[in-house]
Amino acid sequence: MLCSKTTHMSEFNIRVLRPADWLAYKSVRLASLKDAPDSFGSTYERESAFMQSEWESRLDPAGRAKSALPLVAECGEDPIGIAWGLVHDTDSKVAHVYQMWVSPDARGKGIAKALLERITTWAIARNCDLIELSVTTTNDAAVGLYDSSGFLSSGQVEDLREGSALKTKIMVKGLRNAA
Ligand SMILES: CC(C)(COP(=O)(O)OP(=O)(O)OC[C@H]1O[C@@H](n2cnc3c(N)ncnc32)[C@H](O)[C@@H]1OP(=O)(O)O)[C@@H](O)C(=O)NCCC(=O)NCCS
User: Fold this and answer.
1) With a threshold of 0.85, does the pTM exceed it?
2) Looking at the predicted structure, is the pLDDT value of residue 2 above 90?
């Protein structure tokens, strides 16, 4: 059962996903793509066709050419949010935020902010200079989240995905003075 609107933050747990969590990750990720198709570059149609090995390898540190912090927010054992921090090998000074999503029933209680803070702490510990993310320009909740967390628009605008009329903007936050 999902946490109710009245649940306090202390009842949530945020932890790192491991390969053994692939089924829970698959379920929450597909739920996010179904719930918020305009928020992500990828689609439910694309990822629902993934094999078990794809879900597992996403969560397997040994199988990636990048450092990742795959996070899940849980209420009891129920996943109610996810977000990923990623640092690509090609640019070790920039951490990226991907896949940010909180279940509709659990929104407005600081879960996304807590996920973002965990990624920020991780990026600072990795000596990154910057956190960067891409957000659909019309997504007021997500833009509000990143604005209130100190992210600024870089001025760079891109298409959400091929064939979509929606645009995304790049937002960044410097970390040099954040530690
Ligand atoms: C965007 C999203 C992740 C926010 O999750 P959340 O857990 O409800 O956010 P939080 O409760 O942590 O809110 C943190 C801050 O974000 C901002 N915010 C959150 N929801 C907002 C809304 N509907 N409108 C404007 N600002 C909003 C506020 O500044 C808020 O701080 P405050 O409550 O102190 O005012 C959630 O709405 C969601 O999953 N949306 C669909 C998927 C998505 O858009 N992902 C982002 C991809 S870039």
Assistant:
1) yes
2) no
